[in-house]
Amino acid sequence: GTIDAAMGDAGPPPCTGRPGESRIVDVDVGFGHACAVTEEGAVWCWGSSTGGQLGVEGTAPSPVPVRALGPTGAPIDDAVEVACGRESTCVRTRAGRVICFGAGEFGELGGGDVSRSSSAPVFVVEVSGEPIEGVLEIDTGYTHACARRASDVLCWGLEESGALGDGEVASSRAVAAPAARIAGTPSALSTGWATTVAIVDGL
Questions:
Q1: Could you tell me if 61 and 77 are in contact, meaning their C-beta atoms sit under 8 angstroms apart?
Q2: How many CB atoms lie within 10 A of CB 195?
Q3: How far is CA 39 from CA 26, 43, 90, 144, 201, in A?
Q4: What does DSSP say about strands 153-158 and 196-201: parallel, antiparallel, or unpaired?
Q5: What is the CB-side half-sphere exposure of residue 169 using CA atoms within 13 A?
Q6: Of 23, 60, 79, 148, which residue is 20 to 30 A from 127 by alpha carbon distance?
């Protein structure tokens, strides 16, 4: 599919340039918004923006795709995967890092601040404050998110029902930390409303 197909008869997106026939390589749907990644690495989002989850300034909804901006303020151009949560969006880059934007009151942006909500993307960081690297897959639940690397699974956001996998319940974490008790090589990841599941080879 293409971005043009997603827009239907709504016309071009309200931003400089036009995606035209760019091929979509990934797409995801959140609670009231959706985002797509093109083969050039751009991220286009549309729908509700109450938390800034479209990745553009302001909280006005958009019925047509708008191009999400990166941490430097320039349009994202190195995306390979997108995951949409309740009012947040996370993007995996070609370099294996993760950036998130939108609502962050439960730590779902992973940038180190539980209370922060922002349409400006932040890098997901580890406890050390350094951006996580080597990410192979991401997924988001309602108010939490997880990232799969070659040897572990990292999660952040709301701990409801133990979704972060660290043995805690009913708390929030704004940095990415490994899920406990994963002994083996994770090969797939999926998150639900308040749950997380990983396929682990070698068990």
A1: no
A2: 15
A3: 9, 10, 17, 27, 30
A4: unpaired
A5: 2
A6: 79
What pLDDT was estimated at residue 171? 79
Task: Give the separation between CA 68 and CA 89, rounded to whole angstroms.
Answer: 10
Regions of the chain with pLDDT less than 70 = 1-21, 115, 167-170, 181, 183, 202-203
35-93 pLDDT tens trace: 999 999 999 999 999 999 999 998 999 999 999 999 999 999 999 999 999 999 999 99
CA 129 to CA 4: how far, in whole Å?
Answer: 39
Strands (E), 39-149: 43-47, 62-67, 79-84, 88-93, 98-102, 118-123, 137-140, 144-148
What CA–CA distance (Å, rounded) separates 11 from 62? 12
| DSSP secondary structure letter of residue 162 | G
Tally of CA atoms within 13 A in the half-sphere of 2 that contains its CB? 9
Q: What is the helix (H) or strand (E) element at residue 34, kind and residue range?
A: strand 33-38
Average pLDDT, the chain: 85
Which of 200, 91, 171, 185 minimizes the C-alpha distance to 138? 91
